[in-house]
Amino acid sequence: MAVSDTIAFDPLASGGAARRTRAMFVVYGLLALFAAYYLLPLGVIVLNSFRDLDEISRGGLIGFPRSFSMQYWQTAWSTFCVQAMCKGIAPFFFNSLWMTIPATIISTAIGAINGYALSAWRFRGSEPLFAFMTLGVFLPGQMVLLPWAFTLGALGLTNTIAGLILIHCVQGLAFTTLFCRNYYVNIPDALIKAARIDGAGFWRIFRKIVLPLSPPILIVTVIWQFTGIWNDFLFGIVFSSGDHQPVTAALIALTAGQTSVRRYNVEAAAVLIGALPPLLIYLFGGRYFMRGLTQGAVK
Amino acid sequence: MASLVIRDLSKRFGSVEVLKNVNLEANAGEFIALVGPSGCGKSTLLAMLAGLESVTSGRIEIGGRIVNDVAPKDRDIAMVFQSYALYPTMTVRENITFGMESRRVPKAEQNEAVARVASLLQIGELLGRRPAQLSGGQRQRVAMGRALVRDPALFLFDEPLSNLDAKLRVEMRTEIKKLHQRVKKTTIYVTHDQVEAMTLASRVAVLHKGVLQQFDRPRVVYDRPANRFVAGFMGSPSMNFIPGELVEEGGKPCIALPGNGSPAAVLPLATSVTNSARKIVLGVRPEHMVRDTGGGTKPGYGRMDATVEVVEPTGAETMVVMRVGAQEITARFEADSVPAVGEKVRVNVDMNKACLFDPDSEKLLG
Amino acid sequence: MSAVPAHRVTAFEWISRHTPKIVLAPSIAASFVYVFVFCVWTVWVSLSNSTLLPDFTYEGVKHYISLWQNRRWTIAYTNLFLFGGFYVVGSLLIGLLLAILIDQRVRGEAIWRSVLLYPLALSFVVSGTVWRWIFNPTTGVEALMHSIGFADFYFNWILDREKAIYTVVVTGVWHASGFAMVLLLAGLRSVDQDLVKAAQIDGASMARIYWKILIPSIRPIMIAVVVILLQFAIKTFDLVVAQTGGGPGLATNVPAIYVYDLMFQRGQIAQGAAAAVMILLALAVVLVPYAIWSDRRNRRRSENGS
Q: Are strands B186-191 and B31-35 parallel, antiparallel or unpaired?
């Protein structure tokens, strides 16, 4: 146990106490400034979703709210008109839900099994195969728009949620496999070998040894997949239209296609509703977010 | 004037007291080893000397000046870390001159200092390389060079040899000793290896659970340990501790070692010990027990019979674990004196070198 | 000299031995189709005579040529350079600044990090929409200033052809600097703290320690961040659609929007495919050198025992 283990680094320890307080003032000040810059948009839409329209027309969106009403949320949810439909943002919200949840679960499950197979049961050619699969993470969506349109048409899945689920599953495979495999390689080989000597096979080892060790990576993968799929826009507008669209596409239609008086408060509420699921996940599972970042991105 | 004075130094982390009233001093040019097991507080003490940890109570004086609140860079110290802490993105030369650059020392002086240190440590041809390209021993020397170039009043070493393999460790140990003989700087050297402490230091400070156990020359710490902990910590294999009873035999004070019913052995004591209780603990080092070759017992020696249980030939000698009464003890025999397991051997014990400890306070009695 | 009886492998045994490969097979097939077949298909379309529907008569590289002669495309590409440059540099610098600030052992670090990182949980659509409102003169900052009393305040960048792209940069940086911060902070923290202590003893000031030791030490991570951000920039689509719709005019048009336009609005799928291939090439130019560099670096490190 050397010096390095006992002391946490105190960057401002060199210098007197007064200098430290001054420096910390600057640090906190800057952080607060940036925090304001970051929170501004969120504050804007949250507050404005409760304000009266006249107030907004008078003073703009950035201002202290003087009125409060929950009705705009109700309107946004169930009665606001998006293009031709006037059922609010609710149907699109549910479209997103039906699309995101299955796609997340399926792509994560397959990714976990793939990651397990690639790390614990390496065979000749498994590394190049893995590298090949990883390419899918970097592929730009534009390269696959046309083929997917064609494929969906051939399968009869054009403009359906099922079609979107298929796309997101296949797209997500590369990412989830990458993540899970990089996590599973850290499971000691000796553990797997001992189990094989004990007579356990592929599925048994997965169930009894690898799966119990998986919750951390599964949570991270699920969170990232859910967020990524929910927030996707490109595939949403290309492969669906009208009332089959996910909420992200609907929001664009909602906020861009207004000809009459803009009802910013309702729009704000709608935007918030659309943003809520990933935001909530982030609020409650924030550290998994970050773990995923540092694990996966810097490989 | 003492180069370093540590007076009543204590350190607390929250409610945990890590160092308790440590008193130490080092004279100019001395090599002091701080030794003890993990968690004894030696690393914390070193960090406090360096100014990387604050002082809870007590004072530290370097060169006659109280430095409790002085920043590390102003304390006139240099430190060699266990991990060497060489700046990875800089060359060896830049590593050595980094401190001088920070203090805006003129270039000519810098070059002179680098040359001096390079020849002293023989790292001249490494100056253009990066730490990643150096071997463990080379990094060690560069780390020492970086410390040397500051020409400080106090050198601090934090377990610098722990990261090296055994053979390299022995080599570097000798190099450090040679370096100290040449440079003669006051050095505080932290280690958990008591062999390093014994071989390098002019005085050894043994720490245990934040309390200074003994601070004396290596020879004294080894021969006359202040308490049972020091006795057991210094020396490898460690000292044997055998509980016994004070008896009198033939007018002389003796210690009786317990056996089945009657004492397994009775050994004469070299010094007289007054102990209110009759029980004491006898401490004997393995090398102070000789196999009886039939030439009679020398004066000052005691004799006992033991049954051999395990024989471990190490090449240079033979370690024999044997049983005396209820007690297992380890003795060091000659390399070719290899008894058989189960054999009864007769052992002569050098009672002049033996230590007696109080069973309760564990302090040295005699 | 007894012969070992031949052991006929049963179907069950064969399956068990090859289970990993069998399990991976569907994914590999899907990846193959998705990565390889689809790309080849798109490239083929780009070389064909398709307009609204695929028509596989070979046309050569005429679409690529007409693409690069097209003013809309060159504007989009220029916008991408502008946007990408500012976006990456801005996010990196702000992310670095924030990481250093948080590294000063601030209290409530978790809260600060949550606030600075949450934009990543939002869709670009949401970010773009909200910032559009903030930049819009009638509802956003300009309106705020007017209501306070600064009647002469102008902030209509979003409507300005020259300046609209910078509004997108602001939103992009807002979105991504938290991401950069998290990675850079992790990097700063992974530096051996002994280095800092040694530098303190050596007499370096905090600024010098950061400049000469810590920041150089995280250079690999900074490069990784730059590469990832460049990727985001090249693929930018949602953000621009939400914030400016590509306008005013073509001021904020980016390649990804142009691809969508060509493919699904104008019925020019061959040319759209060509544009898509250009995007892929741009990505490859960024990623392939990085992959090679990173791989070589890792190999060198494991040789040296780092």
A: parallel
